[in-house]
Prior knowledge:
The structure is a homotrimer. The first copy, chain A, has helices spanning 19-34, 60-71, 92-101, 116-122, 139-153, 171-182, 211-217, 228-232, 239-246, 250-254, 285-312; strands at residues 49-54, 75-79, 106-111, 127-133, 160-164, 186-190, 206-208, 220-223, 260-262.
Amino acid sequence: MQRFVLSHPYLLSSEDLSVEDVSLIFERTRFFENNSSKKDVYDDLKGYTVALAFFEPSTRTKFSFELATKRLGGECISFSTTSSSMTKGESLIDTLHTLEAMDVQIFIVRHSASGVPLLLQRNTSKIIVNAGDGRHEHPTQALLDSYTIFKHFGYLENLKVAIVGDLLHSRVARSNYLLLKKLGALVGLCGPGTLLPKFHNSWNVTVFSDIDKVIEWADAIILLRLQNERMASGLVPSVSEFAKFFGLTYERISRKPELVVLHPGPVNYGIELEYEVANLPNVLIQTQVTHGVYVRMALLSLLAKTYEFRRLR
Amino acid sequence: MQRFVLSHPYLLSSEDLSVEDVSLIFERTRFFENNSSKKDVYDDLKGYTVALAFFEPSTRTKFSFELATKRLGGECISFSTTSSSMTKGESLIDTLHTLEAMDVQIFIVRHSASGVPLLLQRNTSKIIVNAGDGRHEHPTQALLDSYTIFKHFGYLENLKVAIVGDLLHSRVARSNYLLLKKLGALVGLCGPGTLLPKFHNSWNVTVFSDIDKVIEWADAIILLRLQNERMASGLVPSVSEFAKFFGLTYERISRKPELVVLHPGPVNYGIELEYEVANLPNVLIQTQVTHGVYVRMALLSLLAKTYEFRRLR
Amino acid sequence: MQRFVLSHPYLLSSEDLSVEDVSLIFERTRFFENNSSKKDVYDDLKGYTVALAFFEPSTRTKFSFELATKRLGGECISFSTTSSSMTKGESLIDTLHTLEAMDVQIFIVRHSASGVPLLLQRNTSKIIVNAGDGRHEHPTQALLDSYTIFKHFGYLENLKVAIVGDLLHSRVARSNYLLLKKLGALVGLCGPGTLLPKFHNSWNVTVFSDIDKVIEWADAIILLRLQNERMASGLVPSVSEFAKFFGLTYERISRKPELVVLHPGPVNYGIELEYEVANLPNVLIQTQVTHGVYVRMALLSLLAKTYEFRRLR
């Protein structure tokens, strides 16, 4: 019998996903993508209420989950620290239990502190999805990145994918690294020595010291956003210095136009990427955003199925 | 002929409700509760637009009304002072009339000033629901508390219910006192002398000076939240002093495990209630939250019926 | 064959509208108005997602568009600069492209800078609606004002309509002037010399130096809101001075009770308008609000049709 549920009724880390889970998610993503022009409203989340708990500002991830929920027939409730009574000092776990008691079944959580989604998952039987926690993980970004690369090439096995930029502080880098390795890709890392994770030696990766070597090696590269905070912190000598060694210029990409380029957005133009590069055919930043909605529809749909399946057992 | 509408097409105070009104509301609440697993979307509010006008931060009450509205098929619009043009100095009554002109029929109002819901009701023929006004009233909290106690015991007549804590400043206390008396319960009050309402002598209540005596007397107790402001105001000598005489400890509840405990939330653990107490079977804080949605569905459904009935007469 | 689409799949300025466009919009507005009691939900925007991008605080315009969208079966997403990652320095155009990639098809934009809607329209093939940009234009306000006057009189041709107040800074004045001229009305202007647009000599208008002369001349007057900023800027000697020469008092309107009065709201009572005037039968401020929702439903419905029609060609 074919599996139709995921290993877990939550997603905190790329490590929660088996290869079979990813296959299921990609298959369902493809279905939603293929039927997108029909403007259908699905009923996968009919009767479900999804809490969008974004404790950090967000445009694309929050709207992506919101649209995914609504297109599956679910209801959203949104809250921010400023408008909710979290200002009264109400704890996160109390708020979780309160919403649970109101029959909210899915919690999409973004928080500046690593581990908040795990803390919540330990305290509930409901569905928790990590939408980015501190420097830890952002697994739905990794899913949509892998889906985008997979769809472009038709495979991931032994494909050379490099992650470029501030690897040390990036939750996108960590989730992508874990997922790409699991799916059989060869992973390369490239960034300033001050921004390499300390433990990268134990990771089975190739490390590159400048972007030209990475471009030569890679089939696809994922550029990371350089956070403003980092620029001010002394870890990067100067922004122009960073751009010189690690920025993707028009001149650089011209040498290998077949190279596939991803970026989680929002882009700092002139730093990670020259403005002229953004509209080249193999620069898939807009495609990533489009896939993001379908991947999250697929994920939420399968998590709800997994949750129901376990409840009935 | 059986009544099927309420006495008034609004709810500003527990005093607006007759005993028959409460029966109607509880009956409909029970219906929604019994059918909750079906994930039905009802159409009691189809074509209705509900304005959530929360001028104080709130998590549970706001979401409770929002979910109640959506599960009845109604539309919500939310506004806060910061994002609306109330910052332009637009008056509350002007905003009321503006939304009325847009065919908004139900206004759920929370405000730090006592009397704001009454002010609005005097200026409209639409439905106004008080979701907490200053130190005045919070009648839907009283409805859900009474429903929770009623459901547990099967009756309210002559049941001994105590309200414990900062009685002076609490809109929850006032609304509960009024509703419980109306429904035939015997009401006890317990709190520091500085936090007793001045006029409690004229209320037909028993007053207790410490929580041990209340526990002995009561069948159910409603703990009130000690507001942070109060702690700083000099009305309470110290938080630990308050907790010593009025906090529900594990040791205290162990002497009478059948005692039913309610709290409107969010709880200040270690002050009104020890953390260990929260998960005991007769501590119904989560149940109150769950009932809150059903009670508000019932209320909104009946208010809409009452409004239509009066309009057609 | 009768036309059933608009000249453009966007609305940035009253100048984008032909006389035939306005006829189409008014006809559809009338349809929605006539069927308003039925509480129907239409499907004109089924499958459409509308972004409400209000970068200035707003109550009436934002809710008007939100309700119009929902009553047409569309989904809304709202964002403000504070909660979105615009705080990360993400540019407006990037945000536009991100939402476009998520299949958002309609953007309702309010911004303090003139020209922002035009900038966005130049960068997208999706539908942009100007909901007020700086001192430039507010074309849907003009549509609802013209509809309100047209409905009252049954015609606009040669009708005398005066715009009174701070003409210099008003986007409402500009959009109304352009639309009223196009529809054949005779336009009068009245305001302090310091608040007259410099180029009014080239406009084909009659200028009046005080409100008494305007009242005598006009069939209908549109009062403008005096912005608080203006009062502080020295352009108006004093608020009471302004009210004395340009405020509509009860005494003044009593001399011509058949005069039709409009105001975009929120009103500064005692400045543009005495409180007692607001409830007179020919003061149509609440009617404007009601018409606002129907006009915006008509506009969004026709823009969506126009967009589809062009896409299929």
